[in-house]
Amino acid sequence: MPTGSKSGSGMEGVLGRVLHYCIAIAIALFVIGLGYLVATASQAGLDEQFSLQQIVDSITSIRPEGIIGLGIIVVVVTPILRIVATTIMSLKRRDTVVALLTILSFLSITIAFIVKTLS
Q1: H helices of the chain, where?
Q2: pLDDT single digits (tens) 27-48
């Protein structure tokens, strides 16, 4: 067994845990939402697109499509969390090139979201 590497330590370990937990949460939400959907035999809202406000309303009303929508939000947010975690760790390590690239990635995602929201 190699002694030179620590499993789960450093930047790769942190990023791996972030991805692991986010995907586990998303899968749990999908399973709960689908189970609830089957249990209630509900078809409401499954064939239409949801706005973020509709998803929030569905979640607060504890409707199955809201729980599934929350799972989708977690899947979408996971890469953004990875970018944020990479930026923070790069700044701590004083790796300015990686930090700058991840900040630019985050800004491009933010700008795209704002443009899409305003249009």
Answers
A1: 10-40, 52-60, 64-92, 96-118
A2: 888 888 878 777 776 655 555 5
Q: Which two tokens stand for residue 40?
A: 């209630």
* pTM, rounded to two decimals: 0.59
For residue range 90-100, what is the model confidence (pLDDT) as tens digits?
898 898 898 89
Is 67 exposed, middle or buried, given 0-12, 13-18 or 19+ CB atoms closer than 10 A? buried
Return the domain boundaries, the chain. 12-118
Nearest of 82, 89, 90, 88 to residue 109 by alpha carbon? 82
Residues found in the chain: 119
Token pair 């799972």: residue: 71
